[in-house]
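Quick one from the shared queue. A colleague (R.T.) flagged Histone acetyltransferase as missing a structural entry in our internal table.

Convert sequence to structure tokens.
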Amino acid sequence: MPLQKISKNSKKVLKKQCVTKKNIKNIREQKFNQISNDQKNEFKYIHLPKISIKQIETCYAIAINNSNTLCIVAMCSMIKIMEIQELKKELNQNSLEDKALCIQLQILEGIHTDIVSTLNFMEKPENIDSFISGSFDGRIIIWALKKIKEDFVKPKQWFPQFILLGHISYVNCLSLLNDENIISGSSDNTIKLWNLNKLKNDWSCIQTVREHTDIVLGLSINEEKKQLISCGGDKKILIMKLTSNGKLQINQIINVDIRGSRITFITNELFVFLQESSNNLHIYKALRKNIYEKYQEFPVSGGGQSCDFYFPAQYIKQMNLLVLKNGRCVNLIKIVINLNNQNIEIQCNQQQVLTFGKLEISRTYGTLSNNGDLLVTWNSTSNQIQFRILKENIEINHHI
């Protein structure tokens, strides 16, 4: 057969393969969007205005402990600690009556010298009241309850138990590998792995990852605690694995078109990433040997709006719920993953969109409790700490 004819046939085959792949992608997106549009909204978050707290100081970070008894809120360089004493909800036919009481326990000041940008509670039951703060001053502080001998001081008081020094610029993101290992990302372009030496009762930086060439904006650890992902201003996503000697090893680098700060694992082999002010959420899947590729996109609200780095993406596994800030909007997205003949089908349903303020410069920060019952936010339009509780099994209007 002439070489020219073989070449023409090859081109036809390649063209047919490209068309087939395009058709498969279109079918997948149509099915994906159909599922998203058809599914019933299963819950919404109801605002409790009676317990809103006025706060004029900028709040970049909020955290709730695992027992839903403590809420900590950044106030510029200070930290407000509140006790959630009681949170009840009684639903009538057309009304919601809420009774709640938040008591301020302490304001921590004079330790951080610049804006507090990250807050995370420890995870183990014995450390349930201890938490970690990161700041624009480059410091990471571990706070613990004061004790006299073996008894906690009453009323409760916190003190800076450890101060971790190493970053030379803003601490932008922080994740806990466990209560003895902390991972931090900074505007000094580095990711640091910190370890608690129990014998010396002291923390130290045991590794610095310098692969990012611009500020580190987001971090997430998978459920198995074996992989770490990061995103940065250099338009890179790093896929790292935790080696047997407890160090981080880069396994893959993904280049993206636009930088982003919201990234989180959904399963051990799926993660989502939102490019800055994008109209679409990108879903990445491990296809072979833990090599990730973009698998799917899902439309989200808030695209085209100005959006800063803070208020990280958060996934609540027991609810299949993703909390995703984008511009002035907070998207609440249910993600359901089904196995169909060894193929993964990802179903996304936009449950609710909370829109804060009408100004382009409106800033919103917050967190969702680990059980999904309580959403706490602060925004620069209202200058309020606002509380929202979960109401399930209803049909709702997305924008409230």
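The longest helix spans residues 3-38.
The helical segments are 3-38.
Added to the table.
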